[in-house]
Amino acid sequence: MNLIDFLLIILLSMLPFWEARYTIPFIIAKYKVNIFLISIAILANFVPVPFILKFLEPIEKWLRKWRFWDNLLNKIFEHTRKKTKRSIEKWESLALIVFVAIPLPVTGAWTGSLAAYLFGLDFKKSLICIFIGICIASIIISIASITGIRLLK
User: Fold this and answer.
1) d(CA 41, CA 21)
2) 10 in a structural domain
3) Is residue 131 in a domain?
């Protein structure tokens, strides 16, 4: 293993819509079952999460300076919260874990972070739930990759 491959694993794991769920099959294909590299992919996948959770609020506030964005964000937030408010309030931690853990496109740490912010979930609890979700998704993807099951196309 060279430094370029190592950095590529870290970078790919941090990318939205790619994350560890696509990096782990790459690792297994190239390096067999390498627990160290899979762990690096999981940790790298988590690195953006606290930043996303912390910086979404200032970005939202900045966008709301313009009427167009303020109206659009109000509609998006209102619609989303109205549709799922009861289930999120009742199942917030479990719902966030499951959402991040499902190894499908448009789920994962980035989208889970956005959902946690959108629903005003606790920062520390969101970090824990998202990390657990990343770990579960990584285990599912690892098992699928090792056994040859194709979950993602």
Assistant:
1) 9
2) yes
3) yes
